[in-house]
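Now for today's protein:

——
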Amino acid sequence: MNHDTGAAHSPNVAELKALYRAAEKRAARLRFIIEARNLLDARTFELAALEVLSRLADFAGASFADLVFPSSREELPVQLTVGKSMSPGSDSILFTSQDGSGLCLTLMGPSRGRGVDADDRQTLEVVAGQLADAYNLNRQAAENQALLGDLQRQRSELAALVAQLIQAQEQERQRVALDLHDGSAQLAAGLSYRLQDLSARIGEMHALKPEIDQLAALARRSVADLRAAIADLRPPELDDLGVAAALRTRLDAIDGMEVIADLDASADRWPASTGIIFYRVAQEAITNVIKHAEAGRLIVRLFEDGAGQAHLEVIDDGKGIGEERPPPVQVRGARLGIAGMRERLALLGGRFEIGAESSGGTHVRAVAPLQQEMTSG
């Protein structure tokens, strides 16, 4: 007797349809999650959140959707709504979610509408989590932008304060230079002329003639030193032409050593505070070379790199740091000068380096960012 076992093992049509419908629902839920994620990634948060909230309402068959984001600091919570809520008697809550971040999603619709099963609820929870993540990222980006704006504003205010400080220092230098010119320099010049006149009147045979001539020579040297100090306090070239031209004038006046000047003319267009500080640093470094290094060659470079930074290099072939150290008074003065150069560069947010050259001598390097000067109102 033959038995037909095929019917027992063949799948039931109804079961196949149910499995197919379940697979379609899973695929639809997955597409819904992916599309929501893509929307949040592709658009601004405000536009994407409204679109995703509308799709959430359609997905759950809701007529009204309400999304409340957690408040930040002392700000009020952000709320988005889609659709209209019917009367309390005809509408009921289809879904509500509140995750640990404080986000709350509420979907309302007709009581007779289809219910939200466990799989749908899980899908809604996933998309609500995506909304929470996107909101947090958007808030963090806004906070970072605000912090960046505050930082830029503080940097601008600091740049303005630095410019005012440098300007005040230079004005004080100019005042001192004028006082010296109108006071001590005039007195010394008058003393020099009187001594020369006295020397001419007493004649060559007078016993005091050699001593008067020495005093006249000392007075003339004092006048020259005072005029040099006045020029160093506030060189007119710095105001009229710029830092490169002022440095070139300073270097042209050096005798007794080979001077190589590589000064980029674009430095004359640097912000005034940058030009003044770089001139002062170069001035101090050159003075140290002349007074202490016993050098035969001096190299000064001034230029701007492609990254928007100003550079100064002062290199000599003299004794170098640590060789035949000068007397203690000069050492203290040299250290004070180095500290002053560092402090000046620090005002610009730059750095200062000094060290020995491998072939002998000393190098001084200064670098600072070229920032646009702003005046505080």
